[in-house]
Structures are given as structure tokens and as C-alpha cells.
């Protein structure tokens, strides 16, 4: 982002610009990931006497909770399940590895899961954002510069910048350990943003 006579702006590779707020330094709070809980997984269950052959997982198979709020398949083909309270569970077909607040996750209500080009995981929660490299969590909350802690969706653009959709604060753009806020003052029509997607030129 650059400072222009019109204020701070971000620019994509095509020269398109978006006005933002003043950048906020956001180093994040780093903490070692404590040993996660490992639950053996039973085989997938199959519903009987139904029209379609659907296999499923629930608490009987080892899932922490039946209320699943997000699902993501990583680059190793593992499945990650975000839940409403216990945190996030990684499933490899044989077991669930569970990361919760006690293991370093910023909050147990996980709304969004994303893996970036550096293979870091990002978890958008109701209490902030966690970045996880497999060994440590780096957590971003209002104490680290977010205006609000509820994050609904995370993605990465083609330039390697991370975007957060929030529930009431608008959109954050994270680059070089700085946060840039895009809200109604910068032209956003609503501050409650449920999802994000990339277009062909972004």
C-alpha cells in the first residue's frame, strides 16, 4: 500500500486501486503449539435405507463436535474441520488431531480455514485470527490491531497478500506484517462480510 494525496491505497498488478485506512503494524502474538489431542477415527458411517449411498463422520467416529462450521482440504489431502467451540480437527482417514485454545489456537469457534502459498494455515475465528506453521501459532486480535475479532473468511491473492472478511468491521488486507482496513469510509457498502473470492485478474 502507498500513501497518495487521496489517502492510503492498495494497487494490484493491473494498476487498479482501492482506498484503505492507515496501515496498522500487526506483528501478532506468537506462542508454541502445545501437544494436540489425538482421537482414533472409526470407519466412515453409512446411513441405511436412504436413496443415496452417503458416508459421514460424526462424534461416534471421533469428530470433536457435530456442529461443523468450516471444512478445508490441505495440500497433503488432509481434511480440516472447524467446529463451534472445540477448535479445529485434522483428519487423515485414521485419526483426528485436535487443536483448541489449550494448544495455542486463539479461539475455539472456527469460521474459516485456509492454507497459504507458504503452507501456513490461517484460522478465522470468533475471537481473532490464528496463523499456524505446524509448530507455533501466531494470533491476531484487537490487541494486535484488528478492530474486531470475528473473522468469517480468509484467502490469499496472487501477490501473496492475505485478506480477512469480518463480521462488522469490513475487510482487512494483511501485507508485510501490516493490516489495512477497507470499510464504509473507503466505499464498502456493508461492514458484515460473509465471504471472499478471487476474480481472474486478482
Cα end-to-end separation: 15 Å
Oligomeric state of the chains? single chain
Count of individual helical segments: 0
Helix content: under 10%
Order of helices and strands: EEEEEEEEEEEEEEEEEEEE
Structure classification: mainly beta
The radius of gyration is 18 Å
Sheet-strand content, in percent, reads: 35-45%
Question: Would you identify the regions where 5 or more consecutive residues have pLDDT less than 50?
Answer: none
The biggest beta sheet reads: 5 strands, antiparallel
Q: State mean pLDDT (0 to 100 scale).
A: 85
Q: Kindly state the number of beta strands.
A: 20
State the shape: globular
Strand adjacency order, main sheet: 4-20-19-18-17
Name its key features.
202 residues; five-stranded antiparallel β-sheet; mainly beta; 20 strands; 44% strand; globular
Structure description:
This protein is an all-beta fold and 202 residues long. The chain has no helices and 20 strands. The protein has strands at residues 2-4, 7-11, 17-20, 24-25, 29-32, 37-40, 45-46, 55-56, 68-73, 79-83, 88-91, 95-99, 110-115, 121-125, 128-132, 136-140, 151-156, 162-166, 171-175, 178-182. The strands form five sheets. Strands 4-20-19-18-17 form a five-stranded antiparallel β-sheet, with no helix packed on it. It is globular. The two termini are 15 Å apart. The model has no long low-confidence stretch (mean pLDDT 85).
